[in-house]
Design brief:
This protein has 273 residues and is mainly α. Helix content is 58%, strand content 4%. The protein is built from eight helices and three strands; from the N terminus they run H-E-E-H-H-H-H-H-H-H-E. It has a three-stranded antiparallel β-sheet, sandwiched between helices. Strand 1 and strand 2 form a beta hairpin. The N terminus and C terminus are likely disordered.
Length: 273
């Protein structure tokens, strides 16, 4: 278990405000690129084709519809059945579910970045990628699956890198809070496990033989609950604008920080909770 990072490792307000300004510039550029326009650069009556659109903004960090669709393809690569082969009405439902997941990922990634997490070792990413290849039947089967889904290898590597960064954060800051005692283990052994084995017609093994497995299972469940609660706390204090149902002709979200304007509001001071 890695020790918790000291307070000196937390990013300074200046660093965070710079990061916010960069995100604001990204929104401004997105507005210029994506919004319909009749400016002099386009001939009168010419058709303007929208190639992408913003479907959510998380603390000034935009999520595009293309981000959602790419994430759906990667989810199918990893055989996450909730997002498998969406089409028609199911596509909209899958997009909505994936957008909610991407919002949660952005919130957690922002928090991990705010605390200046250590960089993820490239070798660890390679190892995770190799495990995925093996799970899908080897290098050729993996490459074929990637082609079928039109999935991007670099985006997959970035996803694995973010997962590893989150795992490191969870191990250092959330997992130490989880304590499973003997009473919890015995309660599961005599309750849920006994019921499950009875349904299957199997005998219950001695407690000492399954104690470690039960403890690992209960720890994993408790950790999942801790991550969910942490994510909800991040949602509560974040600025989130969901625009999946907004018509493409509607205006884009306002840019909170207009660089170069004398009337621009100063960047919001960060909060540390």
């Amino acid at each position: 278990m890695l020790a918790s990072r000291s307070p000196s490792a937390v990013r300074s307000p200046l660093e965070i405000n710079v990061q916010r300004a960069i995100r604001a510039v990204g929104l401004a550029i997105a507005a210029l690129v994506l919004m319909p326009t009749t400016c002099g650069g386009i001939a009168s009556g010419a058709e303007v084709k929208r190639v992408d659109r913003i479907v959510a903004v998380v603390d000034e960090d935009p999520i595009f519809l293309s981000d959602v669709d790419r994430a759906l393809r990667l989810a199918r690569l990893d055989e996450v059945t909730i997002f498998d082969a969406p089409s028609g009405p199911d596509l909209e439902a899958s997009r909505r579910a994936m957008l909610d997941e991407l919002v949660a990922r952005r919130l957690r990634a922002h928090e991990v970045d705010r605390l200046d997490a250590p960089p993820v070792d490239a070798a660890a990413v390679d190892q995770q990628l190799e495990r995925l290849r093996d799970r899908l039947g080897g290098a050729e089967a993996f490459a074929e699956r990637m082609r079928d889904l039109n999935a991007d290898l670099e985006l997959l590597r970035a996803r694995l890198r973010r997962q590893l960064a989150l795992m490191d954060y969870v191990e250092r800051r959330l997992e130490p809070r989880i304590l499973i005692d003997d009473d919890q283990i015995r309660e599961y052994y005599e309750g849920a496990l006994a019921d499950e084995l009875e349904i299957r017609g199997l005998e219950r093994p001695p407690l000492d033989e399954v104690r470690d497995a039960i403890e690992a299972l209960l720890t994993e469940r408790a950790l999942d609950e801790e991550i969910d609660e942490w994510t909800e706390r991040l949602r509560d204090r974040a600025d989130i604008d969901i625009r999946l149902d907004v018509a493409p002709s509607d205006p884009l979200p306002p840019v909170r920080e207009r660089l170069g304007s004398s009337e621009a509001a100063p960047p919001r001071a960060p909060t540390f909770r």
